[in-house]
């Protein structure tokens, strides 16, 4: 009887382990500001969704949602990663030839500017401890290069210019974003 109870508890614990929810940055509210297309700056709590290209702004009890068409720039302090993050709305042709505004995070700026976008993917893993596999929802980053002509191309290599995402972010400078002047029309 004790063995049945033990294995039942072990089974419940292993099922619960596979169903744990993760705290992703895009699920949280962050302090920051948004610069709108008309030049207005909104300061308050911000939540972003790069997959839907939406940003939510909360000031007191009111929440407003903006698309990438209405936003030029976003800066937040990400409490989960303890860093400032900057996002730009840039024209990009995701499918076909039509360009529409899309949010990109600025990682490094220079001759070739490094941008990224977050996406959620289900990944299947094998377990060393028991037979079978499990699926987990993970956050992945897609990297893009922006050249001096304003062309954005997805980086499809195995490494991002020989650095990891965090090494690039550690070398970034914290100045006023330069892309605002170069992307406004």
Give the helices and strands, then pairings.
Elements: H1 2-18, E1 30-36, E2 41-49, E3 54-59, E4 62-67, E5 71-78, E6 83-92, E7 100-108, E8 113-126, E9 133-146, E10 152-154, H2 165-171, H3 179-183
Can you describe this structure in just a few lines?
The protein is an alpha+beta fold. The chain has three helices and ten strands. A hairpin with a 4-residue loop joins strand 7 and strand 8.
Question: Mind explaining what this structure looks like?
Answer:
- By secondary structure, the protein is α+β, with helices and mostly antiparallel strands.
- The protein contains 3 helices and 10 strands.
Record field, number of beta strands: 10
Across the major sheet, the strand order is 4-3-2-1-5-6-7-8-9-10
Averaged pLDDT, please? 76
Secondary-structure element string: HEEEEEEEEEEHH
Oligomer: single chain
Number of helices: 3
From the alpha-carbon coordinates, what is the Rg to the nearest angstrom?
20 Å
Outline, from the CA principal axes? Answer: globular
- The share of residues in extended strands comes to over 45%
Labels describing this entry:
alpha+beta, about 15% helix, 10 strands, about 180 residues, ten-stranded antiparallel sheet, single chain
């Amino acid at each position: 009887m004790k063995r049945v109870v033990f294995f039942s508890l072990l089974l419940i614990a292993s099922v619960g382990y596979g169903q744990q929810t993760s705290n992703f940055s895009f699920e949280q509210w962050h302090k920051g500001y948004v610069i709108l297309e008309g030049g207005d700056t909104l300061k308050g709590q911000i939540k972003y969704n790069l997959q839907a290209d939406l940003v939510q702004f909360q000031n007191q009890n009111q929440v407003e949602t903006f698309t990438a068409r209405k936003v030029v720039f976003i800066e937040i302090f990400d409490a989960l990663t303890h860093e400032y993050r900057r996002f730009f709305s840039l024209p990009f042709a995701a499918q076909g030839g039509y360009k529409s505004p899309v949010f990109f995070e600025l990682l490094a700026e220079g001759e070739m500017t490094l941008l990224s976008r977050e996406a959620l993917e289900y990944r299947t893993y094998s377990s060393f401890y028991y037979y079978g596999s499990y699926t987990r929802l993970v956050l992945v980053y897609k990297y893009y290069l922006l050249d001096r002509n304003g062309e954005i191309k997805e980086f499809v290599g195995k490494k991002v210019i020989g650095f990891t995402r965090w090494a690039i972010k550690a070398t970034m400078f914290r100045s006023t974003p330069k892309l605002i002047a170069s992307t406004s029309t």
